[in-house]
Hints:
The structure holds two protein chains of two kinds. By secondary structure, chain A is mostly helical.
Amino acid sequence: MSGGLPSSAALVAAASGLSASPTGSTVIGMAVPGVPYNTLVVACGVAAVGCAAGVVGSLALLRKRPLVGDAAAHATLAGVAGAFLLTGRRDLASLLTGALVAALVGLGALVLVRRVTRTRDDAATAIVIGGGFGLGIALVSGITARGIPGGGGLEHFLLGHAAALTADDARLLMAVSATAITLVVLALKEFTLVAFDASFAAATGWPIVLLDQALVTLVAVMVVVGLPAAGAVLVTALIVIPPVAARQWTERVGTLVALAGGVGATAAVAGVVVTSARPGLPTGPVIVLAAACFCLVSVVASPRRGWLVRTLRAAAERRAWAAGLLLDACVRAAERGDGTFTVTDVTDGRTARAAWRMLEHEGLVERLHEPTAEARVPRDAWRLSVRGLDRARQRQRRAAEWVAAFDRAPAAAKERFSLDLPACAITTDAGDTRAT
Amino acid sequence: MTDSATPSATGDRPVPLVEFHDVTVAYGRRPVLWNVDLVIDAPCLFGIIGPNGAGKSTLLKAALGLVPLVGGTVRFAGVPLARARHTIGYVPQRESVDWDFPVSAFDVVLMGTYGRLGWFRRPGPAERASARDSLARVGLADVADRQIGRLSGGQQQRVFLARALAQEAAIYLLDEPMAGVDARSQEQIFDVLASLRASGRLVVVVHHDLRTAAEWFDRVALIDMRLVAAGPTATVLTPDNLRRTYSGQVELLREVGLAVAERGRTS
Lengths: 436, 267
């Protein structure tokens, strides 16, 4: 559960290191040879945001509300434009304050639309996304078209433009991110409890509404500080993709949170590095593509939950079933006749052929006689070997036990009844994992 | 009468452990529970029995403040829920959570200790020991580190029971703990419940299976939106009461009648 701690400690240290150098001449107190100073500053700020977005997003994913940030994100553009029009200032803190207000208004609108119109969650989200985003685009293009002084560059909040960040901006992003991570680490126990079992949490006296509101607010804050890097359209991806990727590699909440933070930070740095080499390319898409690549690899190839492993396992289970059923067929065929049978007696089709090869390979069936020139036995006479008979008896015993247990079980339990592989397969290791 | 029944003011009469007074719950215009008056005086194994949709689970949820009451009150040992939460252990229905959640059986049981830990405090050695003991009591010590989705249905139900044990409560409320559970897990769960009763706890179980109800519970309440009858099992599970609760399910009634009669002979 303490998996998130080191990263947060490191970030807090980084943030305090920043404030300790007021001149800003050595913002991070270090220099990396060959990397432009400004790129380094921006990379630190964006990495902090990517990390915190992954951390906060993990909780949103666990609470089954991964898209709550999307409505907030699409409303932020209107907030950025509104803040500029109202105050005339265009420093990052002012614009992001406007964005945060708009994000919270967007979330409030989401609740309102759901309650007033009684639409489904996804329809309500679409309404708020559309409305908020339409307003934002209209305001930003209005400002650009009228040539209001200082209004250029607001459109960068659409797709993200990390290169425009200053050292002060990066410091702001780092401070907010460090705070968000600290809060998550502090209340990880509470957030996890509510996400796993809200009714138990409520029954034991935890204020689930308050905790949910805190989580949604944290998501909104991360959406807002993610704007300069990823932009309003893509910032949700920073909240959603790293946790989904991380989930493939772990079964622990603490590890999930830490991994998602790491993935988010790495993707963010990748975005900055690529776009600093290719000026003119928006940062947002590059960051999201980097995260998506890692997510794709994770979903396909992760060792326990990955698509590849699950597909292979399903195929192995099918083969094991086929081999087990074929062994049964051999017993029946042997009992019908003189204890021998031919391959065509028991196999039918390609699956059975593959299963036959498994029986042969395991030494469960044997040729009655090795064919010789003078022996006048049928070329294709087989029987069960001693091992094969033994295995078949084990199989029958366990299958009978299982069926008896199944028949005794209450009706509601039957659909969750799972047959151990060894009972149906030809392998007999007694890994009794599911039977109780 | 209930208002004066505080522990200090009881005198000779003991305060009821749980007291439902005119509890009414409605979803929209449809009443789910209507003026349910139920008093459970002493520690025992108490079954809440009734047909599907009779409001059994809702009664537990109403007691725990998970669904709003439109009328009535619930008191635990004379005090309202807000002051009694730490004395109540809860086992929700197994279907109420996502078992793909990235936690181990041990993690889930540890959640039973969160209530007494309070805000921001992490479980320490005492809580971990309590969680380990609770897992051992339900026979799951050897799967403590397994992700909960890799447990069988019966094991999952026992993890929930262990989490309630880790709450170290005086009153246990269980919502269908035997539903969809294999026979061995059922026995194990029942043994744990019986040991709780033996150590002076009240165990209230929402249960749907009349056949086993007759043999498991000391006292039962028959519920079908309203309270039909409550009291010692043998006096409540009468053909007449059952007919009023389960109108129309004749086949079921005959079997239960036999079970009750059998129990009457043996005891």
